[in-house]
Write a structure and sequence with these properties.
Distance between the termini: 32 Å
Number of strands: 9
Oligomer: single chain
Strand order of the largest sheet: 8-7-6-5-4-3-2-1-9
Largest sheet: 9 strands, antiparallel
Length: 161
């Protein structure tokens, strides 16, 4: 089964978003920060399975610098995904629920981009040192570019969590 580039981008972003976590006891009126970010995203798709690798991630003590996650794509241009990212150096995991939808414009995506996808969501859990930094409820945001060669972050942007 062939998976559209859009679907792959959405799943990749979802995976990257799972790297985030938000505080459990944050007051409803508090502004939640995004203490983490990754500036590189690479994907590999085999059938409906997408393996996403995020790198150049900070803070290093919580992420180990990079993380990976494998997700199943539906091929839909919009929807929601529950994602989990496993951080390098045994730093733990970050789980998130993300929403993805293609945008009307291609933004800063390079030539050959078939779709630009906006990712939003929230950290829902995690383990280890990562979960002490990325708390439940923290926002997850990103813009990704879907191309025949894979899904990448939009140039000049980062996956924030």
């Amino acid at each position: 089964m062939r998976v559209s580039v859009r679907a792959r981008a959405l799943v990749t972003v979802a995976a990257a978003a799972s790297l985030l976590a938000v505080p459990l006891a944050t007051p409803a009126t508090a502004v939640l920060t995004q203490p983490g970010k990754c500036t590189k995203l690479a994907t590999k798709t085999v059938g409906t399975k997408i393996t996403a690798t995020v790198s150049s991630c900070t803070p290093l003590p919580a992420t180990g610098g990079k993380g990976t996650g494998t997700f199943t794509t539906t091929g839909a241009p919009s929807g929601t995904l529950n994602i989990t990212i496993k951080w390098a150096l045994s730093k733990g995991t970050t789980k998130a629920n993300i929403k993805f939808a293609n945008t009307a414009t291609k933004g800063k995506c390079p030539a050959g981009t078939t779709a630009r996808t906006k990712i939003t969501g929230k950290v829902t859990g995690g383990t280890g040192v990562a979960f002490k930094t990325f708390k439940v409820g923290q926002p997850v945001t990103a813009f990704v570019c879907q191309r025949p060669s894979g899904i990448t972050l939009e140039p000049g942007t980062a996956l924030k969590f």
